[in-house]
Design a protein that fits this description.
By secondary structure, the chain is mainly β. Helix content is 11%, strand content 34%. The strands form 8 sheets. It has a 5-stranded antiparallel sheet. The chain has a 3-stranded antiparallel sheet with strand order 3-20-21. The chain is globular, with a radius of gyration of 17 Å.
Length: 243
Amino acid sequence: MGHVTVVGGCRAKAPSTGILASSLAVGTTVKLMEGGTAVEYLVVNQGIPSNSSLYDASCDGTWLLRKDIHSERQWNTSNVNEYETSAINTWLNGDFFNSLGSVEQATIKQVKLPYRKNGGSGGTDQSGSNGLSCKVFLLGGYELGWTTSDNGYFPVDGAKLSYFESGTGTSANNKRIANLNGSAAFWWLRSPYTDYTNRVWRVYSDGNYSNNYASSSYGIRPALVLPSNALFDETTMLLKGAA
């Protein structure tokens, strides 16, 4: 008998049938509820990214990335490139998380994410059990397939997700392009530019990398991790909960 989960004040039996998250191929489109609307997300990785020791066990699951850009927002209102204290980290784990459906809120994993502590210049790359605790996050440059071989000012704050390709070729860049209202647009990463205290890496509208001031407004693509036993409805591909 499935366990009983309390959701929104109601007792709902955990689902026992559906498509298991861990069985979904990378590149599959699923749906999560945002503000009462079903929104498409891409499966971008299964398990620990590239089996990297930069991630602790909390990151072992099904990684989802919003297919389209949610909105354009300032990375940080104070123009400081410290992700852990940034306006965007606060928004993702506050107002945005609270806009998700009750099933989504109950199922999304709390993870410890590799990140650049204290920002770019003078900061240090953190990983494993020293990662940043969060539920929703921006992806990092390494997770999209770039490394310090592409640009020496990327922090080492992750490892490549299976959906993305390494380098700066056309095929790799095409995987990184995202739309806002039907047109390709810039979108923020969580990676600060390591030679400055006020600049952050972003994805250009053609899928290549660039950077700009943290107080600038660019696209936001929320990412999150679900447990491997999360279930999706076979017909709608909407998240049902965890088995």
